[in-house]
Amino acid sequence: MNRSLSQSENILKIGVIGCGYWGPNHIRNFETLPESRVLQVADLDPKRLSHIQVLFPRVTCTQRYKDVLENPEIDAVVLATPVSTHFDMARESLLAGKHILVEKPIATSSREVTELTELAREKQKILMVGHTFLYHSAVRAIREIIQEG
Fold it and tell me: For position 5, what pLDDT does the model report?
């Protein structure tokens, strides 16, 4: 069994922090995968949370991002908040024992990125930055064309 999955089920349990532009896309994408489930979402805006609740009724919503970090069921966190919050929230997520996907940019300085990378390594957690088209078929095709000369 993959170590990043919950012991009780072979399902990656996810929390999403930030429901502005990217957050709902992450929720939708993870909810369509059979090996993952979004358990909890946090956002400061109650209107955004109401919108998420309508779209994804089984997801628990909260205005406190720390509720996501303190939830023992959650294996991984998606951070889709303003850039100024990325470093601190990513660091807190890693310290809480969560794998984390941070929307780009991952932090505001190379020093912060280095610190997060070292912390993830120390905690044996995955730290990943979101790249919108990294896995897109068109980008892969262009890569193959470039590699073929």
Answer: 44
**What's the pTM value of the predicted model, to 2 decimals?**
0.83
The residues that bridge with 108 in the sheet, in sequence order, are none
Q: Give the C-alpha separation, 139 to 10, whole Å.
A: 30
Q: How many residues does the chain have?
A: 149
C-alpha distances (whole Å) from 47 to each of 19, 21, 69 are 10, 13, 22
- Calpha distance 5→13 (Å, rounded): 7
Of the candidates 45, 2, 3, the residue with the CA atom closest to the CA atom of residue 24: 45
94 Cβ neighbours under 8 A, 6+ residues apart: 100, 116, 119, 120, 123, 125, 127
**What mean pLDDT do residues 62-80 have?**
98
- Using DSSP's 3-state secondary structure scheme, residue 17 falls into strand
Does 133 score more than 70 pLDDT? Answer: no
Average of per-residue pLDDT across 10-34: 94
| Token pair listed for 113 | 């990125």
What one-letter code names the amino acid at 85?
Answer: T
